[in-house]
Amino acid sequence: MQYFPAALLELADQFARLPGVGGKTAQRLAFHVLSLPSQEVQAFADALIAAKNTVHTCPVCQNLTDREVCSICDDDMRDQSVICVVAEPKDVIAMERSREFNGVYHVLHGVISPLNHVTQEDIRIKELLYRVGSGKVREVIMATNPDTEGEATAMYISRLLRPMEVKVTRLAYGVPVGSQLEYADEVTLSRALEGRQEI
After folding, report:
1. Fold annotation for 64-198
2. What is the mean pLDDT of each run of 10 residues along the chain (199 residues)?
3. Neighbouring C-alpha atoms within 13 Å toward the C-beta of 47
4. Which CATH number is correct for 6-54, 3.40.50.1110, 1.20.120.430, 3.40.50.720, 1.10.8.420?
5. Rounded to an integer, what distance in angstroms lies between the CA atom of residue 173 and that of residue 143?
6. What pairing do the DSSP bridges indicate for beta strands 82-86 and 139-142?
């Protein structure tokens, strides 16, 4: 027997597809949306559609942007010869909070993870090699998370970059092993950047 309308169940199912949202949370979100005034629901739906239609990857660094080239790549005050490689766009925000890094970024959109069927072909490594191959890059900082997949990805990329005669460094372990960059505080990230080492 179905206790709720099909549209409500479908809405809860859609919320449950989001990462970190379980069945009960999805139901609460669905009920909350139904309790909102129609104009708020419409604004929420419009924001979803607008974000999906306007946000894309920067052709240079692969970060998310709504411009032709993202604001970081387009900033003449940033050191274009130093690239900080991160796994996800949210990691750029974490690094920027430290206010210590004045270079540019490269977003991989994932890490190599055989258990999750993610290979080097599935992430943006080719684009990084193309940027470094231009000859204008003097240092690449590997800032993937200090977990098994992040370490494996950093080592794999460092091996690819070695013949290109570019300095490859890794964030120092001010960031706790097994943690996520987005949860690190500004001081920890600052110390990690200052203590980076060549790999």
Report:
1. Dna Topoisomerase Vi A Subunit; Chain: A, domain 2 (3.40.1360)
2. 79 92 93 94 94 95 95 94 96 91 95 87 92 92 90 93 92 72 77 74
3. 6
4. 1.10.8.420
5. 11
6. parallel
Strand residue runs (E) in 31-127? 56-57, 64-65, 82-86, 104-107
Instruction: Give the Cα separation of 117 and 137 in Å (integer).
Output: 31
> Partners of 76 in the beta sheet?
none
* Single-letter amino acid code for the residue at 171: L
* Amino acid 2: pLDDT: 65
Question: What contacts 24, CB < 8 A, 6 or more positions away?
Answer: none
**What DSSP assignment string belongs to 102-118?**
-SEEEE-SS--BGGGTB
- Residue 178 carries which DSSP code? T
Q: Based on the number of CB atoms within 10 Å of its own CB, is 2 exposed (0-12), middle (13-18) or buried (19 or more)?
A: exposed
